[in-house]
Amino acid sequence: MLKGIAASSGIALAKVYKLQQPVLDITKKEASDNEVERLEEAFAKTIAEIEAIKERAALNLSAEEVAIFDAHLMMANDPEIKDQIISMINDEKVNAEYAALTVSNATISMFESMDNDYFKERAADVKDVMFRLQCNLVGAIIPDLTAINEEVVIVAEDLTPSDTAQLNKNYTLGFATEIGGRTSHSAIMARSLEIPAVVGCKGILETAKHGDFMILDAIEGAVYLNPSDELIEEFKEKAEAFKAEKEALKVLINEKSVSLDGHEVELAGNIGTPKDVAGVIENGGDGVGLYRTEFLYMDSENDFPDEEAQFIAYKEVLEAMEGKKVVIRTLDIGGDKKLNYFEFPEEMNPFLGYRAVRFCLDRTDIFRTQLRALIRASAYGSLCIMFPMIATLGEFRAAKKIFDEEKEKLVNEGVKIGDNIEVGIMVEIPAAAVMADRFAKEVDFFSIGTNDLIQYSMAADRMSEQVSYLYQPLNPAILRLIKMAIDGAHKEGKWCGMCGEMAGDALAAPILLGLGLDEFSMSATSILNTRKIIRSLKKSDMEELAKQALSLDTAEEVEELVKNVLK
Ligand code: PEP
Ligand code: MG
Q: Which ligand 1 atom is nearest residue 332's CA?
């Protein structure tokens, strides 16, 4: 048994599908008689594979994403590259894979050294296509997620957003990754896709083999390889019980999130793409408390998404929520969130570096485009905009000023906009929590981002499993910062939400209710369970509980206290 972090609840039993890129060891050899013939065959196979991937991808992905494969096909069909490889085989009498590698490296360097961004980006396509060609020459297999046609649990180092976008939920019953924590983006994606996941499972890549049978216990955070029949039976029963429990919660879909003594809170859902809204509605969400717009930017292949593409996405979400509140976060890029078409500066600590609102205040052209799209979309629902990673009042004021300018321009252009756009900040840097009373005078609302607030308060990288023990939402230090934010907001008559993972944590809910949190925004799948908890508690009792929790010394003591109450 291997231990990891239960990142997306559930149980899966299936064969292991190991997602690992082959490592090629290509050396120079003397050409045999049929090198050109081998090369022709490998090209034909490469083209056929890309065509097949494109066809399958078209079933799940957007037209824009599918277009990448058109670019790959063009490259694989380009006679110039093939002719260069054939010339090298004939002139230098070397093996086809060596010639392919050499020509590929030269072509990649040529594209990379170009001044034109469009051509620079083509280097990644050449790399991709030529790697497939070399694999076909040496008989190595590149895993293709879209080709999975039986039930599997995916095992990988980590999953990128584009890997997760290719997952077919009918066959992918779960995944286990070597790295990552509860708040890494693959974990967040797993929750929005409702796929059980165990992350930070050290040793899984070395231990699990393709085709092994696996029990993925994403309730406890454990993985069993080739288990006994008894264990399989035991977990089949647990999986059934889990499903039944989920079913039973459905009676709460249309109920209010109200405590026994009549205090109502809002339970909203976190989304990454407009498609995720369906999950929020199905799970009875009172709104969207966090739309992470960076996925729109990360899914875009060649450039920052333009105003129109953004407007369409934001409008889709606002319309789907039919007037319920939608909180959209402006671009939170940098740290672990990279873009294909933009190179961030090399930094020692990217999580502490040039990212989120810091980037937006520097690249105001990109920021203004997003704000215009948001303001235009505001006409279609109830929009709140929030800025991520705000550390100082100066940053908020600068961002708000740009918002006001763009709003005024649009009004002068005669564009219809919503009449009550709220503008707030994420409280995810300790400095903002400490200064909450001052911020509250100027913002419309707060949303506490505990994933980062904990990371920065404890100085513990949220991606590192070695220090994941420091991810302590219930640590009194964190609770005090949360109290500062909530009290600060309320003193000025503003509302305070929370959109970090803590908002959906069953053990945190009683304390957050007691501290007076107004809105809890979480993975859609946690909404109904949180509603059940809120409906079983008295706010006045929880106020007492919160007071007690704040006076304790450690997270363990707080946990003990809450567990006793929930009993
Ligand atoms: C957070 O930091 O708590 C948060 C919600 O934002 P993200 O997880 O996207 O950094
Ligand atoms: Mg954050």
A: 9
